[in-house]
Design brief:
79% helix, 9 helices, 205 residues
């Protein structure tokens, strides 16, 4: 009986090790693919290139993901989940003004921290890639809906004195400005200035 327990224990350990290895490989595939998509766009990346960067065979890559499109979908899903987690810290702020500043700062930091991947996805046309259309449209909606939900709550606490579209356009404008400039960008400082501007505009209404 003791021998049976030991054998079962070893078998369970082996299964857990295999599961952990598979999970780690999937994570590496998504992380590497994210970097490649950010640099070369979806159309510019092949399964061969992904496998090469991971130092695995194409067969091993296809074992985990049947196509580049499926990998791309998982990349989008991972970005969205990371974004949700990234914004949760906003709730720790005590005042609506602090929450507004933190929303802007976290939005900027997250987008800049992804090496241009989100901006590429948001602005990328899927006209020539019909298979991507549904995923990209869904991703854009998820990201902006999440921002709007935070903005709606914060602006409500401020007395609905700020336009949500104005807020989003301002944040995207700051990202565009950063992409066109070689100057050092301080997201915290930019968020503070943007918050002051939005509040000043609201007092002029």
């Amino acid at each position: 009986m003791y021998g049976t327990i030991i054998a079962t224990y070893r078998t369970v350990n082996k299964v857990l090790l295999v599961m952990s290895t598979l999970s780690n490989t999937k994570t590496r595939i998504i992380e590497t693919s994210s970097q490649l998509f950010a640099k070369y766009t979806y159309a510019g990346v092949s399964m061969s290139q992904i496998a090469k960067d991971l130092n695995i065979t194409k067969a091993a890559l296809y074992y985990h993901y049947p196509s580049k499109l499926v990998i791309y979908k998982h990349v989008l899903d991972k970005i969205y989940q990371d974004f949700r987690q990234h914004l949760q810290v906003i709730q720790a702020e005590k005042t609506p003004v602090q929450k507004l500043r933190m929303l802007i700062e976290r939005y900027l930091n997250f987008n800049l921290g992804k090496g241009g991947l989100i901006r590429m996805i948001i602005t990328q046309s899927s006209d020539n890639l019909p298979q991507l259309s549904g995923y990209i449209v869904r991703f854009r909606k998820q990201m902006y809906d999440l921002v709007r939900s935070y903005a709606r709550e914060i602006i409500g606490e401020l007395g609905n004195c700020i336009s949500i579209p104005l807020l989003i356009n301002m944040m995207d404008g700051l990202l565009l400005e950063r992409s066109l400039s070689s100057k050092k960008f301080n997201a915290q400082k930019a968020a503070k200035q943007a918050t002051m501007t939005l509040l000043n505009v609201s007092t002029l209404k």
